[in-house]
């Protein structure tokens, strides 16, 4: 098949969550199919990523399509309750029609069979393109569910609550519009699928969970475990990660150190928010910022700790830690997104005291840490491989190419 991936910006570098999904999937699909990339760019910095991405050899061609200059008055309309999808289309005036014509041209010139669109802006802007080229919508994780969970946070301030309500209204409308515009959509977890179907019951939503690169994330016998080091990592300006790191450092770590005074907590990841940077002032806490490679940090740590209260979708940090053969202590909501065999390996707790108790139990039992690590890696091999995810997409693209699916709004 000849496939077109439509993405806002360029999916690079690979370490960022959404880029990671797109690149791993299409790297595997490109072994058997011809894959082209249409990148919708609106910032000069996005163009700078092109040489590094092209060097990966994933895409047979990469086309950069400049979006029109944003009309901020249309954006303001959304904030005053106007229909979000209509406002977004006005923000980028004329883009949808132009992309529709481009889709017809690319289908003819490249002999395209099916398309793939990712991003809650790109999917709305591409909806006319989806009429010219049968296109799969990859929602990945449901933004509406993300904002629902954020609103449930007990310590959300009034200003944050009002802004979150505004964003939830916006993304609820955008997701509903997109689900009705495409014949099939995908999400990373059953919980995200259920949330999407509440928005558009007539939509078709399939679950294709994220995988993990078992070669990149693997146990390393050359790296000795530090039995008193706890780790969390990720994009540290992402609110669910910020909340998790701050909560552990300020509320849970002191409880753990009552029993294990020498325990240290490392926060690794790019762009640490001010609240995360401030954690470095605490005794026993290190904030690294961006690191060249995560695997040594994972293999050295006794476990990953992720007391996450916010967010949606699947947590790549959990998959990557399990693939490295290290145990994970996290929140019950995180387990819901995993295959049951993988979820069974996690140690789960909701409140601070129970979370600290689970961490202490594992710190006291190195044999249990090793046992959970072995089971975790096996669960990743069996149920969370990128090859399996690519195979699922391959079947969906073949169905689209054969004309076997139509959009709910068609």
What can you tell me about this protein's structure?
The model has no long low-confidence stretch (mean pLDDT 93). The protein is an alpha/beta fold and 410 residues long. It has 2 domains: 2-211 and 386-401, Glycogen Phosphorylase B (Rossmann fold, 3-Layer(aba) Sandwich), CATH 3.40.50.2000; 229-383, Rossmann fold (3-Layer(aba) Sandwich). It is built from 20 helices and 13 strands. Strands 3-2-1-4-5-6-7 form a 7-stranded parallel beta sheet, sandwiched between helices. The protein has a 6-stranded parallel beta sheet with strand order 10-9-8-11-12-13, with helices on both faces. It is globular, with a radius of gyration of 22 Å.
Spell out the key features of this protein.
alpha/beta, 20 helices, Rossmann fold, 48% helix, seven-stranded parallel β-sheet, 410 residues, six-stranded parallel β-sheet
Count of alpha and pi helical runs: 20
Based on DSSP secondary structure assignment, what is the total number of beta strands?
Answer: 13
Shape summary: globular
Provide the spatial order of strands within the biggest beta sheet.
Answer: 3-2-1-4-5-6-7
CATH class identity of the largest domain: Alpha Beta
* Domains, number: 2
How much of the sequence lies in strands comes to: 15-25%
Which structural class matches the secondary elements? alpha/beta
Cα gyration radius (Å): 22 Å
Largest sheet: 7 strands, parallel
User: What is the CATH fold-level name of the largest domain?
Assistant: Rossmann fold
Helix fraction by DSSP (H/I, runs of at least 4): 40-55%
- CATH architecture classification name of the largest domain: 3-Layer(aba) Sandwich
User: What's the CATH H-level homologous superfamily of the largest domain?
Assistant: Glycogen Phosphorylase B
């Amino acid at each position: 098949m000849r496939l077109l991936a439509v993405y806002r910006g360029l999916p690079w570098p690979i370490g960022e969550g959404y880029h990671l999904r797109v690149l791993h999937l299409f790297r595997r699909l490109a072994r058997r199919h011809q894959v082209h990339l249409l990148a919708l760019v609106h910032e000069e910095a996005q163009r700078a990523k092109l040489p590094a991405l092209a060097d990966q050899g994933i895409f047979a061609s990469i086309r950069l399509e400049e979006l029109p200059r944003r009309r901020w008055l249309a954006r303001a309309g959304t904030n005053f309750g106007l229909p979000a999808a209509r406002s977004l289309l006005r923000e980028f005036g004329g883009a949808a029609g132009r992309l529709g014509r481009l889709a017809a041209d690319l289908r003819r010139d490249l002999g395209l069979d099916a398309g793939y669109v990712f991003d809650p802006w790109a999917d709305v802007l591409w909806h006319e393109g989806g009429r010219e080229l049968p296109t799969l919508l990859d929602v990945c994780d449901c933004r509406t569910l993300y904002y629902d969970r954020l609103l449930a946070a007990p310590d959300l301030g009034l200003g944050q609550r009002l802004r979150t309500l505004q964003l939830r209204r916006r993304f609820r409308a955008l997701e509903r519009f997109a689900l009705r515009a495409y014949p099939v959509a995908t999400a990373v977890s059953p919980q995200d699928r259920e949330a999407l179907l509440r928005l558009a019951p007539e939509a078709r939503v399939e679950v294709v969970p994220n995988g993990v690169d078992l070669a990149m994330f693997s146990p390393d016998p050359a790296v000795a475990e530090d039995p008193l080091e706890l780790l969390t990592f990720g994009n540290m300006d992402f609110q669910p990660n910020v909340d998790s790191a701050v909560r552990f450092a300020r509320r849970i770590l002191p409880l753990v150190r009552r029993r294990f005074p020498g325990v240290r907590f490392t926060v690794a990841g790019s762009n640490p928010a001010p609240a995360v940077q401030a954690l470095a002032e605490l005794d026993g806490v290190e904030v690294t910022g961006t690191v060249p490679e995560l695997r040594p940090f994972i293999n050295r740590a006794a476990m990953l700790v992720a007391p996450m209260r916010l967010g949606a979708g699947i947590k790549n940090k959990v998959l990557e830690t399990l693939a490295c053969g290290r145990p994970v202590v996290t929140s019950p909501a995180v387990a819901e997104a995993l295959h049951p065999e993988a979820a069974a390996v996690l140690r789960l707790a909701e409140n601070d005291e129970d979370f600290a108790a689970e961490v202490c139990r594992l710190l006291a039992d190195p044999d249990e840490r090793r046992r959970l690590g072995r089971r975790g890696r096996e669960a990743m091999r069996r149920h969370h491989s990128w090859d399996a995810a690519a195979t699922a997409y391959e079947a969906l693209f073949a169905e689209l190419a054969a004309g076997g699916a139509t959009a709910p709004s068609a």
